[in-house]
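Reminder to self: C-alpha cells first, then the designed residues, so the page reads top to bottom the way the pipeline ran.
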C-alpha cells in the first residue's frame, strides 16, 4: 500500500480482479475552484438555463407564439400492462385502454398458438363429470376427497377453507350440488341468436393486406394463422415476453408500434412528438427545437433495469419525445387516490405487486411480486367448470374469442362473498367467426368462489410451468457505467427485505451454521390468541391454537368461534382423507389460520442447538394435543423442492428488529429468492410486506391503509376477504392491532385506471419540471439520469 494513503482500498466491484489501488477523492475544502459547489453549476441546471434562453429567443423572433393550453395537455402518460395498455394526455379524464397485443404479417410457416397452462389439471380420466369432492352423509360442512388424484386433493383443501368460513357465518351448504349442476349442464342445448338480434355482434376480419393490426383489430382476426398473421403479447408480468419472441429487437419494434397506434387513436400524430430540426439560437450553442410532447412512464415497483432502459430508449430515441419522467406504480396509485401513506396492492392479469408508500416514497424493502393474477382465476374457473360438464365443449383458451368468453363469465359470476354461493343459473354468449351467436346456460355452485380463492390458496398454481420458455434479458456490459454504479454486494440490491423474510424458512440448517454471532438475540415469546369462555389459548408462534377464528373481526360486529367449535369441526372433518404419503401437521380451525401459522414461520430466524431442543420439546407438547390436519397438499405435490420440505424454525415476534439478511446462505443454496417469494398467498405476502417496513407501529400503520387497485380488485367481496384474512394473521402477532382497513378507490374512479390517473397527476404538477430527463441527458448519463432526476425510484 503506498505511503501517505492509509485509507486506500481495492474496488471490490468493477476492479476486483486487479491489484490497482483506487486513489481517494479530492477534499473539496482544499480545492480553490468553485466547480460543482452549487446546484447552479450542474449539467441539469445549465441545460435548463439554455432551454429557457432558447425559448426567449424564439419568442423574440416570433418563431414560436405561446398558446394558452390546458395544464397537462402536452404530457402523455403511458402505463403498459400485461393485457392492456393505458395511454392518454395528463389532462384527460380517462385514458385510452387497448389490448396490449399486435398481429403482424409473418412468412410461412406460421406457428400455431400455444397456451401455457399455469393451473394444475386433473387426470385425463377425471376431466369431465367427475367432481373433485363429495359430500359427507353426517356433516354438511365435511368434505371428502373424490379420488387419489393430486388435483382433487388440492381442490378439496380449498373447499375445506371455504366450508370453514361458511360454518363461521352459519351459511347452509347445498347437498349434492355438483351432481345437480353436472346433470343440468350435460343436457343443455345452446340457443342460436340471429345476427339481427345480437347487439354485440362482432365484425370479424376475414381478409387483410395490412402489415399489422393492433389492439381490438388484432383480436378480431377470424383466423390469423390462415391469413398469415402471428398474434403476440409483447409484455408479460411487468417485463418483456421473451417466450413468444425470437429476439428482443422484435419486442421493441412491436411495443413502439403499439405506442404509436395508441397515440394516433388519441389524436396525437407522429409529427407532434418526433425530433425537430436544428437551428442556431446562440453563437456558442446549437439547440434542437423542442418537441411538443413530454411523456410520463409508469414502471413496476420491482422493475427490471433492462426493461426500463429499453422503454426509455423507445420513447426518447426512437419516437423522439421531448423529455420523459418515470414513476413507480405504487406511488402513482397513492397520487391517484389522494393519500400519502398506504400499502398498495396492484392486482393485474399476470402478477400482483405489493409495496408500502411512506409520504410519497416507495419503501424499497417492502416490495414484493406474486406470480399470480386475473389470468389464473380465469384458467382455474375453466378447469372447475369442466369438472361439472361445461356446456361449451369446444372451448380452447389459446383462441382469443374463447378466452374472451371465460373473461366475461369470470367478471359476471366470480365472487369472494360466501353469502353469494348458491346453485344458480347463469347464461353466456359464444361469438365465433363464421358461425351465428349461441346462447348457453350454466349451473354452478361453489366454483364461482373457489376460482378467485386461488389467490389465497395458490396450491393449484404451477409456478414453475408458468415461466417455461422465458429467457432472461442480457446486454453488452458498459464498463464505464458499472465502475460508477456497481455495488460490492449485488445480493442486497437484487432482493428486498420482504422477499428475504418470506424465504428464510427454506434455510433452517445452513442459517444456523452461518456466522450470526453479531446478530442480536431473538426472542420467541408466547403469543396469546383470542379465546372465549375463559379458556386459555397460549401457544407458540409455530403452532397457533385452534381457538383462533378464521375471519377475526371486532367482537361488536361478529361473533367469535369457541375452542369447542373448533374441536367439533376437526372431528367432523375426519371424513377427509389424504394419500398415505402425506405427513401429519398441526392444524387450525379456520381456513386462514394455516397460513397465519405459515406467515411467522416464513420469517423464522436461526437459534442455537439448546434453543432448538427446547423449542422442539415445546412443539412436541403442543402437537400432542393439537388436532390432526386432514389435508396437506404441499406434501402431495410432487414438484416440491428439497429446501421447501424442511420444517420451519420458531418464528420471531414482529416487535423485534427485522431478521438479518443472510446472503451467504442464499448463495450457498443458489436459490431464486424473488421466485420463491412469488408463491406466497396474497394475505401472507401483504403481511410480510408490512413487516419489512419496521416494527409493530409500522405494521399497524400500513395494515390500516391497504389500497387495492387493478382489474382483479373488482371481484365482489375482495375487500372483506382481505380484511378478514389479514386480521386473522395480524391479531395474534401484532400487539394492540386494531381493525384492518381496505381503502376503497375514490368515488366514481375505476381501480383499473387509478395508477394511470396517478401518473397524470404527476404530469400536471409544477414540481415535475425538476424531474424531466431529455434525450441529451439520457445519452450522456444513461440510467444514472433516472436515479439522479427521478429521486423516488
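Designed residues (793 positions):
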Amino acid at each position: 500500500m503506498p505511503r501517505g494513503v492509509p485509507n486506500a482500498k481495492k474496488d471490490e466491484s468493477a476492479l476486483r480482479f486487479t491489484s490497482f489501488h483506487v486513489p481517494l477523492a479530492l477534499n473539496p475544502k482544499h480545492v480553490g475552484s468553485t466547480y460543482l459547489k452549487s446546484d447552479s453549476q450542474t449539467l441539469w441546471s445549465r441545460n435548463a438555463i439554455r432551454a429557457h434562453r432558447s425559448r426567449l429567443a424564439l419568442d423574440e423572433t416570433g418563431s414560436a407564439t405561446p398558446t394558452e393550453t390546458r395544464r397537462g395537455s402536452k404530457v402523455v402518460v403511458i402505463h403498459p400492462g400485461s393485457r392492456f395498455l393505458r395511454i392518454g394526455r395528463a389532462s384527460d379524464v380517462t385514458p385510452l385502454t387497448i389490448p396490449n397485443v399486435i398481429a403482424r404479417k409473418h412468412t410461412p410457416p406460421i406457428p400455431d398458438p400455444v397456451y401455457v397452462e399455469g393451473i394444475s389439471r386433473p387426470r385425463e380420466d377425471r376431466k369431465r363429470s367427475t367432481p373433485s369432492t363429495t359430500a359427507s352423509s353426517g356433516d354438511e360442512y365435511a368434505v371428502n376427497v373424490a379420488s387419489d388424484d393430486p388435483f382433487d386433493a388440492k381442490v378439496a383443501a380449498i373447499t375445506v377453507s371455504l366450508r370453514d368460513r361458511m360454518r363461521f357465518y352459519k351459511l347452509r351448504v347445498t347437498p349434492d350440488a355438483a351432481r345437480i349442476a353436472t346433470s343440468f349442464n350435460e343436457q343443455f342445448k345452446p340457443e342460436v341468436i340471429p345476427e339481427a338480434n345480437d347487439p354485440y355482434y362482432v365484425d370479424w376480419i376475414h381478409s387483410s393486406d395490412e402489415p399489422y393490426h393492433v389492439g381490438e383489430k388484432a383480436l378480431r382476426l377470424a383466423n390469423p394463422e390462415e391469413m398469415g398473421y402471428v398474434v403476440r403479447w409483447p409484455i408479460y408480468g411487468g417485463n418483456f415476453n421473451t417466450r413468444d419472441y425470437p429476439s428482443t429487437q422484435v419486442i421493441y419494434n412491436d411495443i413502439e408500434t403499439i405506442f404509436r397506434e395508441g397515440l394516433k387513436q388519441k389524436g396525437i400524430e407522429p409529427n407532434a412528438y418526433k425530433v425537430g430540426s436544428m437551428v442556431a439560437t446562440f453563437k456558442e450553442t446549437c439547440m434542437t427545437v423542442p418537441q411538443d410532447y413530454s411523456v410520463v412512464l409508469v414502471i413496476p415497483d420491482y422493475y427490471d433495469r433492462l426493461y426500463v432502459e429499453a422503454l426509455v430508449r423507445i420513447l426518447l430515441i426512437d419516437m423522439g419525445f421531448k423529455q420523459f419522467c418515470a414513476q413507480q406504480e405504487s406511488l402513482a396509485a397513492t397520487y391517484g387516490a389522494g393519500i400519502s401513506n398506504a400499502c398498495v396492492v396492484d392486482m393485474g392479469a399476470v402478477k400482483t405487486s405489493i409495496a408500502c408508500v411512506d409520504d410519497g416514497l416507495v419503501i424499497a424493502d417492502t416490495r414484493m411480486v406474486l406470480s399470480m393474477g386475473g389470468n389464473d382465476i380465469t384458467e382455474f374457473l375453466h378447469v372447475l367448470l369442466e369438472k361439472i360438464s361445461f356446456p361449451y365443449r369446444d372451448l380452447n383458451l389459446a383462441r382469443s374469442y374463447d378466452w374472451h368468453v371465460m373473461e366475461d363469465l369470470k367478471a359476471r359470476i366470480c365472487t369472494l362473498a360466501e353469502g353469494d354461493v348458491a346453485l344458480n343459473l347463469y347464461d353466456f354468449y359464444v361469438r365465433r367467426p363464421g358461425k351465428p351467436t349461441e346462447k348457453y346456460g350454466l349451473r354452478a355452485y361453489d366454483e364461482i368462489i373457489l376460482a378467485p380463492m386461488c389467490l389465497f390458496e395458490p396450491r393449484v398454481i404451477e409456478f414453475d410451468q408458468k415461466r417455461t420458455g422465458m429467457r432472461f434479458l442480457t446486454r453488452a456490459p458498459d464498463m464505464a457505467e458499472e465502475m460508477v454504479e456497481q455495488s460490492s454486494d449485488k445480493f442486497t440490491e437484487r432482493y428486498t427485505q420482504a422477499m428475504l423474510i418470506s424465504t428464510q424458512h427454506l434455510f433452517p440448517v445452513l442459517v444456523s451454521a452461518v456466522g450470526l454471532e453479531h446478530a442480536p438475540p431473538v426472542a420467541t415469546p408466547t403469543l396469546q390468541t383470542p379465546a372465549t369462555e375463559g379458556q386459555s389459548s397460549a401457544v407458540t408462534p409455530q403452532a397457533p391454537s385452534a381457538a383462533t377464528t378464521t375471519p377475526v373481526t371486532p367482537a361488536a360486529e361478529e361473533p367469535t368461534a369457541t375452542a369447542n367449535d373448533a374441536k367439533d369441526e376437526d372431528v367432523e372433518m375426519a371424513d377427509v382423507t389424504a394419500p398415505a404419503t402425506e405427513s401429519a401437521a398441526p392444524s387450525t380451525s379456520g381456513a386462514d389460520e394455516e397460513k397465519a401459522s405459515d406467515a411467522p414461520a416464513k420469517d423464522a430466524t436461526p437459534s442455537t442447538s439448546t434453543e432448538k431442543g427446547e423449542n422442539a420439546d415445546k412443539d412436541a407438547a403442543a402437537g400432542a394435543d393439537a388436532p390432526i390436519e386432514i389435508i396437506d397438499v404441499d406434501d402431495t405435490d410432487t414438484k416440491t423442492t428439497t429446501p421447501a420440505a424442511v420444517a420451519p424454525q420458531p418464528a420471531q415476534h414482529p416487535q423485534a428488529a427485522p431478521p438479518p439478511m443472510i446472503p451467504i446462505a442464499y448463495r450457498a443454496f443458489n436459490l431464486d429468492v424473488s421466485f420463491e417469494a412469488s408463491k406466497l398467498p396474497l394475505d401472507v405476502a401483504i403481511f410480510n410486506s408490512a413487516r419489512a417496513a419496521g416494527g409493530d407501529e409500522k405494521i399497524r400503520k400500513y395494515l390500516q391503509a391497504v389500497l387495492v387497485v387493478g382489474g382483479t380488485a373488482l371481484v365482489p367481496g375482495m375487500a372483506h376477504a382481505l380484511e378478514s384474512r389479514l386480521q386473522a394473521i395480524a391479531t395474534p402477532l401484532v400487539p394492540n392491532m386494531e381493525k384492518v382497513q381496505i381503502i376503497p378507490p375514490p368515488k366514481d374512479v375505476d381501480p383499473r385506471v387509478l395508477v394511470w390517473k396517478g401518473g397524470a397527476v404527476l404530469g400536471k404538477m409544477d414540481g415535475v419540471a425538476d424531474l424531466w430527463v431529455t434525450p441529451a441527458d439520457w445519452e450522456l448519463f444513461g440510467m444514472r439520469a433516472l436515479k439522479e432526476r427521478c429521486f423516488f425510484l
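The CA atoms of residues 512 and 606 lie 5 Å apart.
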